[in-house]
Amino acid sequence: MKRKIYLWIGIVAVVLAATFFAYSKWMAPTRVAFVNYQAISLGSIYKANDNSHIKLVEVSTDELDKLKGFDMVFVNGMGLRIVEEQREALQRLADKGVPIYTSMATNPDNNICNLDSVVRDSIKTYLDGGSKKNYRSLLNYVRKVVDGKRFFINEPEPAVERAEDIIYHPNPSGNDRDDDLEFHSVADYEAWLKKQNLWHEGAHKIVVTGQMADPTGLIDALQKAGMNVYPIYAREKWFDYLNAINPAMVINMAHGRLGDEMVDWLREHNVTMLAPLTVNRLVEDWENDPMGMSGGFMSQSVTMPEIDGAIRTTALFAQYEDKDGYRHSFAVPERLETFVETVKRFLELRTKPNSEKRVAIYYLKGQGQGATMTAGGMEVAPSLYNFLKRLKDEGYKVDNLPANHRELEKMIMQQGAVLGVYAEGAIAEFMKTGNPELIKKEDYEAWVKQALRPEKYKEVVDANGDFPGQYMATADGRLGVARLQFGNVVVMPQNAAGSGTNAFKILHGTDAAPPHPYIASYLWMRFGFKADALIHFGTHGSLEFTPRKQVALSSNDWPDRLVGPLPHFYVYTIGNVGEGIIAKRRSYATLTSYLTPPFMESSVRGMYRELTEALKIYDHLAEDINERREQGKAPDARMEDDLKRAAINVKAATVKLGIHRDLELDSIAGKPYSEDEIRRVENFAEELATEKITGQLYTMGVPYEPARITSSVLAMATDPIAYGLWALDKQKGRTHLDADRDRVKFTQVYLDPAKELVNRLLTQPTMATDELVCRTAKITPEELAKAREIIADRNAPRGMAAMMMMTGNKKKGGMPAGMPGMPPKGMGGKADAKPAGHPGGMPGGKADAKPAGHPGGMPGGKADAKPAGHPGGMPSGKADAKPAGHPGGMPGGKADAKPAGHPGGMPGGKADAKPAGHPGGMPGGKADAKPAGHPGGMPGGMPPKGMGGMMGGKKKTYTKDEVHLADAIMEVERTILNVNKYKTYLMESPESELRSNMNALKGGYVAPSPGGDPIANPNTLPTGRNLYSINAEATPSEAAWEKGKRLANATIDLYRKRHNNEYPRKVSYTLWSGEFIETEGATIAQILYMLGVEPVRDAFGRVSDLRLIPSSELGRPRIDVVVQTSGQLRDLAASRLFLINRAVEMAAAAKDDKFDNQVSEGVTEAQRTLLSKGLSPREAQEMATYRVFGGVNGNYGTGIQGMVESGDRWEKESEIAETYIHNMGAFYGSEKQWELFRQYAFEAALTRTDVVVQPRQSNTWGALSLDHVYEFMGGMNLSVRHVTGKDPDAYLSDYRNRSNVRMQEVKEAIGVEARTTILNPTYIKEKMKGEASSAGVFAETVRNTYAWNVMKPSAIDNELWDEIFDVYVKDKYDLKVDEFFREQSPATLEEITAVMMETIRKGMWKATPEQIAELARVHTETVNKYGAACSGFVCDNAKLKDFIASKADASAAAQYKQKIAEAREANLSDKDAKSVVLEKDKQNAIDETADTSGHRMILIAAIALVVAIAAFLIIRRRRKN
Fold it and tell me: Which of 459, 585, 1098, 1335 is disulfide-compatible with 1388, CB 3.0–4.6 A?
């Protein structure tokens, strides 16, 4: 019996085993994994799959170990970022027989595939076909052929070749498995629309292209809104379709560029292009993410489209999970509604008569009744008036405009003030006499419901109380909004975005919700005034710095909610591209650039004549002695004595001028300076003489004075020619001159002749020929041709980029660069099935690789110059080509272009060929070849059948000397051929700006442009264009890497000279967005090289990996770093911050170094510090490598300016240092720990810091004139001193001269700036040609000088304050400065004298009793006569007020106190106008900027409550048991 049982058991077991075997082999589900695919790609495949026995799973690169259980693995190799261990894991799976198919591997090491050629080709054919039908067949083919199943198979059909050059439409069947309908002509498509009742006669036509998501919802919504929508996927017929359709707008769901020819088309047809974003994550995750979007996805979805001139990169699509857990990208309903309304608003601008358009213009104004309007480099009042006049001339209803700009300014002072919350009296008076718009609660709350989610409004109420809030309110509960209305145009001040007293926090970001007046202003503008367009006038306001996401904003972000669907235009200086890009992305602005002030030389040489003569005598004697020594003769004693006396005379002149303080030299009489010290003095004096300074502030619509046009062109062109010729002479052995060590000789031999040449070119434009280039450079025509060849070859794309260009030689009507994309019928992310630039992009959506060359500067880029008179407002001819690398910075190409001044190259004619280095132009016309991945776009579509081996030929190899020689020649050629272009652009830009703004208000296209001051980057001209950034993923560029290495070595050398040949242990770096964009990441290169780590580039030129430089190759210790980032840089280049922290970890772990590893020692010291603060060993170990820090709560600045400038709120510098360390203590070195604040982390990172480095890339500002320098560099300096007990060295990385970057000690830089600007009568007279905004420049510089005195006392001497007093109070140069201030801006005089008195009160300036008495007299007299302007210094410092009164005449003091009281205190009897005002904030800045302590207490209390409840429940349960 048992035997039978066993037998049956055996039979059953065999049957079961056989059944299981048969099932597993022939019937079991086929599991297919997808690695590194985008949702758009997978969504199409998921929808296509109709076989329940085929299971599709997405596997992340972090989970590759899960792949061993799959029957087929598809890997998208485009942009696949895996480390060696992951690569090896994939290869092991392949070796073990797991079928793996990798497509489009940008890294050859990732090209893992173990299928035979027949299967591989079949799969590729299906993928190339792209349709859902092909995907269904592909999946069944995999099940049948690869997995070997015999049952539950739908027989795979042959692959259907993809249809190209089509207009498509989502299938009206509504079945997800149906492919879209395809049409091959506009007529056929329109006929179908009419048949389906989807045609709207006479309606706007909208082209939709480039999907990274399912566009069905967007197409449907646009059609329901009454538009005719044309979804296009085309290669050869792209422009044919565009021309046939003649759309009013293009909507590109981009992942890459469309290219330069698209820019031309948009400009010529004056068509706006919107670029909504696809968020690559679940909608909930995106909304909760503080970043929004970063890395390569941001570069391709935001940066690249911006270079095409696309606007409105607003998040529209996000991912949703279906019932099976599969993800799909669809339009977010709430976002779609706003986006469609945005489209309608832009289209209305095209059709609505100007006389009916309503325009709201915001200006920025400092706090205080008399405070001036401000905008970077602009004289605001006349500029704004010119803008309003132009609107009136263009037919806008601008009623009752004052007769002149001074009357307008007076009205703004009375009716458009921005008042500090402390100025109760001024607010009460304004509410009575300022004619504010009074907003009722019911109106406000109705607007809030339309604009804000309930939870957002709760934040407002929690932070500011119920409407109307704490100030600017009437007794009956209405809220006052300042505004001046001129018919259909309203002019408004931008209110403070915070209710505290920290001005910088208010301007550059706070974690709190804005107050009611701020929100009410924008909501009234939208819903009360019913604006058709919004303009922010001048650089810059605060809207873009309100809290939360950096880009891809959600409905929880303030700019998104306050701008809403309104077309937004931002008049922005070309000199501040870094912050401009933040405004563009966070407030959805179309930027329209304006000029900087003009440039000129300092003209101080005559002021230093005594020193100059003493130096000449010394140099003559020194040359005689050296000549004798070279002849083998010893100098006699008399010559030696004469030389000593000459050295003593140089010293005497140096000390008399105070230069010894700037250079930190001794002043001991009778002891001569050494030869090196005299060289330093001589070079300093020569730097003063040749320093470039700005002239009067720019007025929109008004060209520079002729003399200033000439001086600006000289500033733009002299240095490139001089340094190019010097580099040539060095290469050819014709000179051994050191330009840094012997500035005087360099001026004589190179600068002066270059200046003379530029002057001649300006008067004789036809001189600019190849013959002149060769003669000037002392080269042959053959050498010129060879240089062009070398640069052209080096700029030509290779590798993946060359493959991308295989269809670049397109037919007429074809798609230029990135081809507009296929609807989600295709792979989306599968690049071997799509043209380059297919939205979906580069497969996987990861085609983020563009080289770091500055966008405006690559060959073929055509965005930089436009035909004169074009509606977009661009003067001059088409710039079809660009110089390689940094615009104007790297040489390039053929110079057979028309010479400067040739009719084809000047405004009016269409100049298809441009001279070398034309701002925006590479020599020789159209340069179709671009370096790999440059933002100029990948010309041509991707070969339709995959890579096909088309990786391009190898670059020719050139020696370093050949390349440097070619670079120098091209620099000279480019500049010579463009001198008159510069002149033309400067002359025409004012009109271009106005024309461009008027065109934008008509819904027209604003052409793209790089940014930066025109000396550093001539490609920024002409102005009136839409600024763009660079691709962060390709930084640091190769050019930036070389600059970074040079500057890092210079930092080490400078420190060692000052510190007995010791190496610095740790160097602090500040990262700023403007420098990052303009230098292509040179400061990041400094950081990496200091650590002994170098970038590794992939096939597209992206820097996504690092290599540890061997110690023997580095030749020095690895030096530790600590990095602070501005919020602007953080938002633009988050991935670079991750790279830096990774480099720190690599350097710290380096083994077998020949030298000390200061990074490793720094980590050990940080760990010790953290342990001493009470952290656990695990926490200390983790935090010890943290090196990248920035503002807490996502703030954009440090939040200490208000504290520093409120001297009555701090007594010890340690208070400021501790605030700074707290406010900048968020860690940004890891995506997973983004914005993490951990106490003591930043403090520990600051230990052992010996040097503080700050970038300086602009010729428009310096350490004294820009407050952010003292804020970041000074704040870091003070914090390091607080932590280490030692004042660190402080150096500026000076990038202003692209041909000669250098390091400069900050005290020396401050000396140069002070002597050439605020103490220079030439500079003062230039600024005094202006008005109130110009007056404000002086006040800002004096205020910053005070702040530097706080942050780094050794940088500011007592004598500097004496000089400021003599110049501005005693009028040393008899310039009538007192009259200027009293006429233009009495508030400025109040501010300057108040700041100087505060410097005295704080003990930082040892002023004489006479100086103190005179300052008190001037200040009190000005306040008594003109009233208290009520800036923080004037009205909000009680201790200072009492100090000033105590030093003034008794009667004047009494009146002065009364004036301050009137401004500060409300009239209690004035019931109707009384403001409900916030009490003065008495907390320090740490509370204002990041008051996390209150949140912490709430959190602790909440935790305690939870614990108590839990304990109660447990006890209760036990009792029951």
Answer: 1335
